[in-house]
Design a protein that fits this description.
The chain is an alpha+beta fold and 327 residues long. It has one domain. Strands 6, 7, 8, 11 and 12 form a five-stranded antiparallel β-sheet that branches. A four-stranded antiparallel β-sheet has the order 2-3-4-5. A hairpin with a 6-residue loop joins β11 and β12. α2 runs antiparallel to α3.
Length: 327
């Protein structure tokens, strides 16, 4: 799911500035033999993990295609970042934009959590329409199903460093041991660099040299320039740290997944009587003119490679407009 900030946050000020019993078959759900768990290494074999991932994504696919009132179906198949994206109102989703929750029928499993503890995680990937997407699936405990936790489309030219062999299993990163810093601090630093106005333009622990950051920083500057002295533009982020998931890679680095809420605000100054919204923005807001402010709330998903030393790199990102308030 994605709605371009350049397309939606573009505004005009005072009409002058231009502004995604009988025979029951043994394949009935619940009657299939459960995948055999491994006592050591990965909790499932590669084949069993693929079956688990395909079933979970099939359930997630059905849930995201369900009616707006099918909340129970969504909460059964989706969690955290994926659930928030699925609950975005349809009017905010651009039909022709890349969908962060697009789920092909088959995926390639990249890693399965090690051991028999909880929660259990699977990392998978698939390519569709030329976009490579990473999927994280989580089973919290023995009483809940495997759910889609997040889906992050990779940026063009990006790659995932080698993971441990599937049979060996992957471990969750719980702190910053062996890394340039804790995943939470890396994500917070990245979000701070994307804030506007920014207090800092560089960080020792994360880079903004990825396409998403470059585009967002450019759009912030363009919007502020367009408003000039007739309006102000601010951009801030809040990270959902409780949903952060990170895996240890083969070389000791980590691959982290997280979602953030972004808030964009445009306000007229005393020099301007009102903000005139672009046609698309006016359609979503339900009004053409704004005298106080326009607030846009977004969801952003990130996949970040955190090395043992040197700045982390964002290899996957998506954004989705979630709400707009104009007053």
């Amino acid at each position: 799911m994605r709605t371009s900030p350049r397309a939606l946050a573009a505004l005009a000020v005072a009409a002058a500035l231009p502004l995604a019993g009988c025979g029951i078959p043994d394949r009935v759900a619940g009657l299939r033999a459960a995948p055999v768990e491994q006592a050591t290494g990965a909790v499932f074999s590669a084949a069993a993990a693929r079956q688990v991932a395909d079933r979970a994504l099939a359930a997630a696919r059905a849930a995201t295609g369900a009616s707006s009132g099918a909340a129970a179906e969504r909460t059964t198949a989706l969690a955290g970042p994926a659930l928030r994206l699925a609950e975005v109102a349809a009017k905010f989703v651009d039909t022709g934009a890349p969908n962060a929750l697009t789920m092909p029928p088959k995926v390639q499993v990249l890693g399965v959590s090690k051991g028999r503890g909880w929660p259990r995680t699977l990392l998978a990937t698939a390519q569709q329409d030329g976009v490579q997407t990473l999927y994280v699936l989580i089973q919290r405990d023995a009483t809940t199903p495997v759910k889609l936790h997040t889906a992050v489309p990779m940026q063009a030219g990006a790659s995932v460093p080698a993971l441990p062999e599937i049979a060996d299993g992957i471990t969750r990163v719980e702190d910053g041991s062996g890394l340039v810093d804790r995943p939470e601090k890396v994500i917070a630093a990245y979000a701070a660099l994307l804030t506007y106005p920014a207090k800092a333009t560089k960080s020792a622990i994360v880079s903004t040299n990825d396409a998403f950051a470059k585009g967002l920083l450019a759009s912030s500057a363009e919007q502020a320039k367009a408003l000039g002295k007739l309006g102000t533009f601010t951009r801030s982020h809040t990270v959902y740290e409780q949903d952060l998931v990170a895996f240890r890679l083969a070389d000791g680095s980590a691959l982290a997944f997280v979602q953030a809420a972004r808030h964009d605000r445009l306000r007229p100054t005393k020099r301007a009587k009102e903000l005139l919204l672009s046609a698309r923005l006016a359609e979503l807001a339900g009004k053409k003119k704004v005298k106080k402010a326009v607030d846009l709330d977004w969801l952003e998903n990130f996949a970040v490679v955190i090395p043992r030393s040197g700045p982390a790199t964002v290899i996957g990102a998506s954004e989705q407009l979630r709400d707009i308030d104009a007053s």
